[in-house]
Amino acid sequence: MESIRARALTGARVASDRLSRRRWLQIGIAGGSGAAIITSGCLSEDESAGSDDERDGGPNSGEESEESEAVERTLSSENDRDGDDGWKPRVSPSERPEHVEHLIEGYTGETSVLPGDSLEFYVRTDDDWTYRIDVYRLGWYDGDGGRLTTTIPSSGDSRGTDQPIPEPDPETGEVACDWDVTDVLEVPVDWLSGLYLARFVLTSGPEAGTSTTHPFVVRPHPDRDPAVLVQLPLATAQAYNGWGGKSLYDHTSEGEPANVVSHDRPYVNEVTFHLNYAVHLLRFLEQEGYDVAYVCDSDVHRDPSLVENQGVVLSAGHDEYWSRPQRLAFQRAVDAGSNVGFFGANIAYWQVRYENDARSMVCYKHTVEDDPIQDERRTGLFRDVGLPECELLGVQGWGAGLYNFPNFTVQEDAMDHPWMANTGFEPGDEILAVVGPEWDWVRDDCPPPGEYTNFFHYEEGTSDLEIERPADADAIAYNSEAGGTVFSAGTLGYTRAIDPDPDWNRGWPYVRVREYAPSIADPDPRLQEFTRNLLDDFVNSSR
């Protein structure tokens, strides 16, 4: 087996020339009209999105000029457009269901859509109030981090509809709304793949200006063949969501946690609270100009070939809840020689099942014996159903420090690896406050399935911080038998350290981490260069 250290970076790249990287990494798709066709409230006719000058001068609300119809859209040109930071969290996030005020809230009829699809919104607020929906695409956008793509309705406001808050199912605890459709978005055929955020904004009444959010994913256009495919962890965000009084967790449930959670409901908090680790990664990818496209976990569950046929696949952030078809799809990709990166920790930890066309997610976490299915599809820990994480990721966990984050130490044995080139790392250097809030390590009882390099390591017991679940932490890469490479960051904190401007995220746990490690307000340029080397190698050596 070829040593991972012997694999050379291919293709010329000057580290400081970001524009050069964009030129050789991007693939565009043909642009369409870009007009977002929307139906809102009681409207019976389609309305196209407003111009740049509409909705308080909001930039680029979904439309394209006639000139752009003939121009290829690329991620680079998309991120060169005017941004808008209205997507950013506006309140301190809380997972607790008792903190929900139910002033305005909503959800989407699908977790993901294709360009050209229809997306239904279900919004609830007081009958006497009005609202609008601002739809943002998240990316880099010269630091704004998002772009206002459209507003629904394109002029005026929608009249509110008071919709019922359901009781949890007495058997499973599932909270699933059955609300009336209030708004419909015809997704423009030229919208680029990405993570989108719908912000529901009250525009009248005593609480005007109050808003909540809900995410959805636009999958890549069928004609696109992206260099990198990113899986976004909407299942994990939903697992922690306590809206309606139930989640898969004690601390976000009223009474016993549920065994089934539904996507047919709003979120308790600003959704970036649990997606923020993925958002940190996508901001880096899009600033660097990599040719990326996005899907969510249930997309891979429905169509495993999305991953199996892709040369480079990344799992983004806190990607904790997977179905068995998902897990097997990633394993087949590795076995076929794909380059796979796990940019987080606690990944592929719980096995779930999907029901109701993937709108319901089943996971009998702590009552496995009550799961009505007791074969290999039984929910619970993957390691308990014959698929331990270490056999895919090369690491397994989990350690946890809550808001106490130890440091990674650069390993001397990794210094001759090509990914270390021009990073400025020296043996024994530390990456501050990057290990946390959860992390994984190389297990003696389940070593990586191929020859591996350990780049960064934290040794249990060497930190002065109080660690809730003490354990080592490791960031590694191993060679698969098919000739691909698998990288595992080993910590959720990795992606924040490479975000070009990470301090937009001041929620838990970082509000506490900043008190003793103020340097986390800025990225680590050494780790950024390491990640560029890694990804450039992935793209240039992919099957």
How would you describe the overall organization of this protein?
With 543 residues, the chain is an alpha+beta fold. Helices cover 17% and strands 24% of the residues. It contains 12 helices and 29 strands. β2 (37-40) and β3 form a beta hairpin. Residues 1-34 and 42-71 have low confidence and may be disordered.
What global shape is seen? globular
Rg (CA only)? 22 Å
How widely separated are the two ends?
17 Å
Major sheet attributes: 9 strands, mixed
Give the mean pLDDT.
88
Q: Which residue ranges are poorly predicted, with pLDDT under 50 across at least 5 consecutive positions?
A: 1-34, 42-71
**Which percent band covers the strand fraction?**
15-25%
